[in-house]
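FAQ: What does a ligand-bound record look like?

Like this one, built around adenine:
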Amino acid sequence: MIGIIGAMEEEVEKLTAQMEDVKITQKAGMAFHSGKLCGKRAVVVRSGIGKVNAGICTQILVDLFQIDLVINTGIAGSLNADIDIGDIVLSTDSLQHDVNAVAFGYKPGVIPRMETSVFPADKHLISLAKSSCEKVNPDIHVFEGRVVSGDQFVADSELKQYLLEQFQPMCTEMEGAAIAQAAYLNQIPYLIIRAISDKADGSAQIDYPVFEAAAIQHTVKLVLELCAMLQ
Ligand code: ADE
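The answer part, i.e. the structure of the complex:
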């Protein structure tokens, strides 16, 4: 069973529209759409925005639907000048940039008393997603790199610079690393797929609504192709 989490209705409704034999299960205020997507058994759900929603959503996917893997799709702010709005980032790993126990001697982003705070994504999923993206979105670029997540919309050059220096990420968003941590704790593979909607600086509030729709189209096409390719 494939678990697919989007943060917002705009992206999720485009995926659920493609599903067959859909059953909707309500839990924790979320509508889990289980059925067939591109011929594969899948559950598609909107987690809502932020890390708590995303973590809860992933655990429900594991407990109620016994998912074998989880894909997180959505949009993100670019932290790399080579990445254009509309391009896609696939996570190589992810972490939570707003975890801070510095007062106890931990580096920023380190979760005390956990073996790791950086969660590697599944290599097979990365490679399948890359080839899927090149096939269905030939007009854009696909990058692989670190995704940092926090309960913050990053729209400030100073914060952007801090994230770059501290974590060397490719993009930032608000759910991926929470899904990654839940996947790690449950020992299932995960991948974050994000289309870039803005540059996470002073122009982010203006760019985001303008480019959101186009960015979502790219991720939806990619997720459908990836789903079809999965065993
Ligand atoms: N999602 C899309 N753009 C973002 C940004 N700049 N910060 C956090 N989440 C985002």
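Follow-up question: can I read anything off the structure? Yes, for example: Helices lie at 9-16, 51-65, 123-136, 157-167, 176-185, 204-229.
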